[in-house]
User: Fold these one by one.
Assistant:
Number 1:
Amino acid sequence: MPISEIIKLSLNTLRTNKLRAILTLLGIIIGVFSIIAIMTLLNALQAGIETGLSELGSNTYQVQKFPAIQMGGPGSNAKYRNRPNITYDQAVRLKNIATLYKYMSLEDYVYEKTFKSEFDKTNPNHYLGGVIPEYLECNNRAIETGRFISQTDVNYARNVAVIGMDVVEKLFPNMNPIGKQIILDNHPFEVIGIFEPKGEAFGQSNDNFALIPITAMHKIYGKNERTINIAIQAPSKEEFDASVENIISVLRVIRKVPPGEENNFEIYSNESLIGTVNSFTQYFKYGAGFISFISLLAAGIGIMNIMLVSVTERTKEIGIRKAIGAKSKSILSQFLIEAIILCQIGGLIGIFLGIVTGNLIGLFLQTPIIIPYDWVVIGLVVCSSVGIIFGVYPAYKAAKLNPIDALRYE
Amino acid sequence: MEPLIEIKDVKKLYVMGLEELYALKGVSLDINNNEYVAIMGPSGSGKSTLMNIIGCLDTPSSGEYKLNGKNVNEMEDDELAEIRNKEIGFVFQTFNLLPRINALSNVELPLIYSGKKKDERIELAESALINVGLEDRMNHKPNELSGGQRQRVAIARALVNNPSLILADEPTGNLDTKTGEEIMILFEDLWSKGNTIIIVTHEEEIAQNAHRIIKIRDGLIADDYLSEKGKLIAEKTKQQTISV
């Protein structure tokens, strides 16, 4: 009996038993749906984080007092808090002594600030950064109009500001803000430039900030109590590791870290952040995979149950088929393929719903749209396996029925 | 000419717990091509067991059964399935059609198992249904057909693979007298077209439609004789042979 006939036959049977087929499918659908939805979402998040991080600029890395991603309980924070600040003077010395870098940007940030103009004021969710000219190279940002902060601005601690598009739209609607006055945290500045907008990621704007010379920042917030973020671009991809080594050794000397003790600062790059994120999501994947596997197992038992009922219910049919010449193999494959088709249909529906749902949530979080092909394949393979494993026994039982008894069955 | 069915000292033993029961105690029987035979017997006589063995649904415990020259008694399940598919057309008391598919698909079924291509299947199934007078009922499902029509579909299904033998088990048992007579006329017609027919029944009237009657009692053949019809036909054949 050709396989196409068997498939047609199975589809026919499933069609005539719609409600039962759908209820049986539900188990598989839910199992596959959950695994695909979670994987889609995780992959989308991961891709979003990766694109977000890649915007930091290529071959760049960061030196900070605090790590970028902190894992562990609330107490683990103390270790980082007790570190001495990376002061502006230390950072300047690093910039002067270290040799193996292309650009080094010194950055000092304050968060949750309100900016004002004579027209309006922003929500208190903006941040203000004190920077030096090399900020642009290390952070992969560009100026749309006007100019960026120059070394002279830094040297004279001028009250000039470069602002993001959100600030422009809110404070200077329908006008050119260059040359206008802006009040940053109660201090007046002159707008000299506007950043090219970068849009949103994960529901957060990338354009809700203003930058001023780092020296001007120190006039407002003081110099010695603050910790500096250092962004560094290595001369090339090849010299990336050497550059990191160079910075670490110089900074250890500057910060007087005794030999043998661990760094009292954090160094991370896009790659190491992506690695951290990936290892983090990996655990989620294993967990989600395991739970989905269990639900598929339960669904498989449901399939076996329904197939056993089906075999009993169709004993007479099996008898008739055998009487008119069906071999055991034909009956076996009929029931087995029925189980596999059941699983596959459930799997396909589950995959479809999972991808749609995962991406809808992703859309809400503004992550890129993703189809996790690897998990689609895994899902279908697992579904077929579930169909085979849990379909084999009922199918075998059907194939082994004695035609005389089966025909007599009422 | 070699007989179509050669049964030699066939015994069938059933073991139920400690009890051993011979359903057939040594039956020997030859049936030729284009014979029309009725097997009769009360229930428990071994008639059904004999039918199952003739129909290759079961194998004898001992003895020999040759169908169309092939030794059936030592065949495996799948070989028997093939014999059933190619050599035997079953007609059952309860019709045994698949309820969810239409008449044409039911008749097509044996052809699927014998591996015929779709086009050929449809053609053969249609001509089998036309043969039993159901050309306008092909797309009806069994529950949309009368009892007589269902039995005709079953007969078409039995005929479709052009078997050596049509084996009917109480074919009129679920039909009213008139419809039953129609079905018996159909069998007569099939016989006249060269088919070999075995009818298993306990009704004397139905058995009289056959040309040869074999009576089973207590697992043995109690009687084997020509019916009135059979005698007439034998006469006719004799006369024809003489006149030739």
Number 2:
Amino acid sequence: MNTSAQTEPPAAPKKNLSVKVFGVGNAGVGILDLIIQGGLPGAAFAAVNTDPPTLAVTPACEQVSVETRLLRGLGTGGDPERGRIAAEEHLPKLKSLCQGTDVVFLLAGLGGGAGTGISPVLARAAKEAGALVLGFCTLPFACEGGRRLRMAQQGLAELKAAADGVICLPNQKVFKFIDENTSVVETFKITGQLLADAVRGVARLLAHTGLIEIHFADLAALLRDRHTESAFAVAETMGPARSREVMDKLLAHPMLDGGQVLGESDAVLVSLMGGPDLTMAEVNRVMEQINRQCEHAQVIMGAAVDESFRDRLAVTLIAARRASGEVPEQAASTSGADSLEVQLLSSSTSNRPGSRCVPPAPTLSPEQVEQLMARQTGRTSRGRNSASRMFQGQLPLEIISKGRFDKSEPNIHKGEDLDLPTYARRGVALN
Amino acid sequence: MFDPSSIIVGLEIGTSKVCAVVGELSADGALNIVGLGQARSRGVRKGEIIDTAKAEEDVRHAIVEAEQMADVEIRSVYLGVTGGHLRGFNNRGVHPVVSSDREISEEDAQDVVKNAKAINISAESHVIHAIRQHFLVDGQEGITNPVGMLGARVEVDVHVIHGNRNRLQNAVRAVKGLQLEVDDIVFNGLASALALLTNEQKELGSLVIDMGGGTTEYVVYANGIIKHTGVLAVGGDHVSNDLAYGLKIPLGRAEQLKVDQGSALLDDSVKGQTLNYSTDLGLPLKPVNLEHLRRIMSLRLEEIFQLIGQDLEQAGALDYVRAGVFICGGGARIPQVAKLAEQVLRVPASIGRTNSISGLKSALDQPEFANAIGLVKFGSFHHRRRAGAPSFAAGIRGVLSGIFKRG
């Protein structure tokens, strides 16, 4: 968090930051359409897909078809491997697209062939071209089947490794926005709109010189290791009571579950955008409420001023939470044993937020044990570190039985179920 | 044999046992316990009836036993109630003194109490007790009787204990199903406090914790009045359940181990010790780690005291506890439980003794019976009040029974 030394708001709000938004795959191109319709000043657009027909209807500035003979103009057929191969073939072309861009936003719907396969390759290409990469992606609905979800998870892991940060929206969350009568088309439009809002919010936050600036590095640090589940909300209000209203509006956002998500998240980024008339008291009021909502989270805030936002206040909030059972990616990429310590610390405190179970005794994978041993003996074995890491996920089940109180009225006291054994709730290990 | 009106019976339908105590009020007003009956309770969880048929049967057993021992016929009982739905809070009533000389009259005192008892609670709630605390005259605190004093404004605090009407009614109906009348329903914690505390202790400030099978009730007395009451729907059953879960043994065995090997504190001497038991047939049972057993137990009990401590702290009642903590109920049987309470609450703690009543002394001076004895004591207060105004006795009884018929 940096406070700029300037005493008056800068006249030119834009930094010389060139932004390019890529829509990848059918879903990504669809979202890109929405963004172009809504307008995003100062950004260039590009659509990347495997089948030319969808590209034809997109009014995006640049259109790239990663067609190969292998696909025979039929798309990837839902196979990410084909998408990847096609993208690899066009790597130089993709790289040239990213040339001269500072920040690349990558929009994709994971789970299909094109989005899942191309986006990691594109992210890598953009990085090689010297751009910072931020991914915005959706995960498939649960009803789309386990295979798609698995592919999406795999694609997400690859994208995470390639991009600087990923914001991820599980489509399933959209069920809160829709009712019985919402059509499929509208539903996908809603998810698209949500991502488009997020893109616009992040673009705004990066492009404007802030009174309290948020750097891209802050954003990337926040999203690293946490992007399996992030929630974002954008709220805008006008008038004299704007700071009070904006908070109500923000908390009413279905994505935040009435503020519950904030309480569970462990990192929150807040960006306020107002006109030159934005007062410190207003910033303070909003931040105070947000801080109260998320006691456990690391909060990064920024405030920026834009002439066009006179009498308006927009708050963009991104809440990220480390998913349970997830092993931080760090140790795999950096083989340094220092990171192991960090990982051990963090895994014992914040890795399993919602679980009431006693942490099982073995918390180290064989690789980690090896690392630790190697460190103690003073030798490092680098051979195994690059090997792909497997970890066992955890089912979201409450595994403690309440025994004889199973069917009685639960005994909830300050969010704890007193019927469950105390030692289990407090995580006291019996061994 | 006895004048039936001088027989007072307290009935507690607890989670682990049903207990009926028969008291006899002698002509000079002394209370004597003459009978006791108890039965294992099977139809109650967390202090509330979940199986009416079984509960009725258990009550019948206990009543019959008490009748035989006391050689009386029991017609009516004072019924103890508890459960996680009970809530206690303090309410203040205000009344302006309108008489020209500003002297507070008897009517003023009655009116202000009436105002304080007019509380805003939901329709399904039933007020069990509205106990008068101290009066305030023109903001001056701690006045026990304002009649005859001068003032412009008289206020009074009452402590209100209320619970869900239907759930309270379940217990009352179970008793009525046995052709017994219910004289009054009494909050169990209050009854236990009455049995354990002397007037001096009430004046000095005491905390009574009744650790039952399914619930734990606590009452704070200070300056002779009830300051705070509360119920936690956590009790000895939870300890057994924790043990069964944690040690992976059947519930019945957990219960037995809790009684045989339990302790509220974990000391170093048990480290690494295991217990080997065998069945009646000589087959070995799964060995139990004593350290684990004690740890599970001590954590649960510690938590109970912590929750009570937090609640009292929030209500600002912990500072009033100067005479100490008195523990009763089955939980008082746990070795070193008083020591644990002392550690957590940082107030001297001891096991409560029901020494304020004469009668079957040695048999009755058990922490488990404090509750039922307290119910009898509560009944005797009512009785004396009734005897004091014989002409109104029928009227009061009518009002009381009316309450339950309406309820």
